[in-house]
Automatic annotation (TrEMBL):
It comes from Melipona quadrifasciata. It is found in: Cytoplasm. One of its GO terms (molecular function) is AMP binding. Keywords: Cytoplasm, Glycosyltransferase, Purine salvage, Transferase. This is Adenine phosphoribosyltransferase. Pathway: Purine metabolism; AMP biosynthesis via salvage pathway; AMP from adenine: step 1/1. It catalyses: AMP + diphosphate = 5-phospho-alpha-D-ribose 1-diphosphate + adenine. Residues 41-156 form the Phosphoribosyltransferase domain.
């Protein structure tokens, strides 16, 4: 199966819900991919094939769907996985970064003892929308001494222009306006 066929499998497996979580919003749900083992394998293959040549030291997943994607990829790449979580969810030495979302504020944390200075890091999440969460993760990793080389998502809502806020390469597999 070629790359375009794999991307089409992902697109076909993504379920769209109108007016969720509020009227006027179309929610793009990646869990349809996880319910389709062929699409899930295609997703894993696409991510691994993309990351394989980036010389990555660390894969970081965002709370919470990035937690589903990151470990699968890390096993294939034989690289460590580290979560970025919401405030108060991680033990040990953590560094925090507060940020504003379209509906309020949040704080991300990362365990600093597992981030080596200069570690070439890729951030993975399910979806890039306005870029607020991803931008906060980039800042948090910079504060921790890592070098973020790319942000990777399965879905990108390109009409919201989230990638413009990031100042780093962004790769997504399925785009919606």
């Amino acid at each position: 199966m070629n790359k375009n066929e794999k991307i089409q499998l992902l697109r076909d497996a993504i379920v769209s819900y109108s007016d969720f979580p509020k009227p006027g919003i179309i929610f793009r749900d990646i869990f349809g991919i996880f319910r389709n083992i062929v699409a899930m394998r295609a997703m894993k293959d696409l991510i691994v094939e993309h990351i394989l040549f980036l010389e990555v030291d660390l894969v970081v997943g965002l709370d919470s769907r990035g937690f589903l994607l990151g470990p699968i990829i890390c096993m294939e790449l034989e690289k460590p996985f580290l979560p970025i979580r919401k405030k108060g969810k991680l033990p040990g030495n953590v560094v925090q970064h507060a940020f504003t979302l379209e509906y309020g504020e949040a704080t991300f944390e990362i365990q600093t003892e597992y981030v080596k200075k200069g570690a070439r890091t890729i951030i993975i999440d399910d979806l890039l929308a306005t870029g607020g969460s991803m931008a906060a993760a980039i800042e948090l990793l910079k504060l921790s001494g890592a070098e973020v080389i790319e942000c990777l998502t399965i879905i990108e809502l390109s009409g919201l222009k989230g990638r413009e806020k990031l100042g780093l390469p962004v790769h997504s597999f399925v785009q919606y306006d």
